[in-house]
Amino acid sequence: MLIALYARVSTTRQAENDLSIPDQLRQLRDWAKANGHLVVKEYVEPGASATDDKRPVFQQMVSDAMQKPRVFDAIIIHSLSRFFRDAIQFGVYERKLNKAGVKVISITQQTSDDSAGEMMRRIISTFDEYQSKENSKHVIRAMKENARQGFFNGSQTPYGYRSVATDISGSRGRKKKRLEIDEAEADIVRKIYHLYQHGLEGKLLGCKEIAKHLTESGLLMRGKPWRMQKVQILLSDTTYMGEYYFGMRDSKGSVTRPVEEWVKTDVPPIIDAATFEQVRAVRESRAPAQTPPRLVTSPTLLTGILRCKCGAAMTLATGKGGQYKYYKCTRRQSQGNHACTSANLPMEKTDGRVLRMLAEQVFAAERFQQLVAELRKQIAESRDDQQARINEINRQIKQVEERQQRLLDAIESGIVDLDEATQQRAQRIKTAKEALLIELAEARRGASMPGEDRIKPSQVEIIGKVLREKLSADDSAIAKSFLSQIVDEIVLDGQTLRVKGSYEGLAEVMQNVKVGTKSVPTFNLNWRARQESNL
Question: What is the pLDDT of residues 324-333, one digit of tens each?
Fold first, then answer.
């Protein structure tokens, strides 16, 4: 039999320091040799928990097992816990592999292939899952107690600190660690607090400007440029006044745990408590007020549409205490001017420039006629595609009905018994037919939707004229609606703004146009299709 071997340990530390994986592989190879099986591949997973399937080597092994023809006939493991510590997940993957003709065999917990063996594997997997959860509970309890005693449990140390071994021994003879101030990094932390509180050369600095100043001065954040978000974290983290908290976040769920579950550990302070509270007060006083945008001259008119040539979005920024508003590259805003060299765009000037571009170029009379002509062409092609889809669905419905009729004829003639299997087959055919009928209804509805080609050619010129007037008018009430429907993206490249749109958006706008009785188009974005609303 061709077999694959799978060995796993839960952490990278175990993989580096333990002999578990070599021992697993040795026993697996000896078992294969004793039973006359040929090992075609070995899969080794160093540092991955078996409580879920987020294991790259495991996923690669399953993918290889599903290939046709089969690469191997069985996966050999030391114990069932090496495969999964979750009973439900174990059953799901075991059934998936069984369908592909690949068995899962444990050399230390061998079971039969009958129902009794399957039940035994489920029982073993359930106990493995229970044991895993119990171990996790005890480990977390021990780590919390370790934190209460003032020791550091590991992971990345906070900036400004380093972990040092003590003389106290912990589990497996390892020395416990504490956090100690790293003076080189601590000086930068103190500098950040000073700059935020007092500014530089008489000028107040925000988080972005501090990040920019540090990076340009060569004071990098462990070899990387400073980012605005990291400065914000440093200014709000209580660790720097001597209060480090363990267990704030659940690493599996990536969520913040309730405050009562946090464990406080006293560490040497880098910033005194008074300075920390003063900076907290300054941060709160500088928090920008949130004001609702106006309908038309909204500061977010182009947010979500306007992008920088570097690929980042451009968002609203302010200057002189909110006196000036402009669009700025988010990468440049968070990482500093070294990250992107694009210029800021005055908000009002840019909004007006984009609206004029649409009014004078996109909706210019001749250009608009060309757009509508191309739109009509695309609608016609789309309807041809819809009709082809309808024809194909009708063909499939006819085939299903023929299958249904043949089954009924076989039952009536006695060729097939009306047992449970026959009833299930009949139900599957009925379900397939109903699904096709729903798909057919949707296709017909799409083909019959009122399109732009329902608007007369004489009305196109009037519609284009009104669009130009609305976009060119000050405080246009429809500008933002049109931008969100017609414009997909506006890219800043130097002093050039490239506007990209879609015919789908244009069709949507055209469908939202109702032509008045006096040949004057009106715009009704809440247009209803029933007759009583369009008399």
Answer: 788 888 888 8
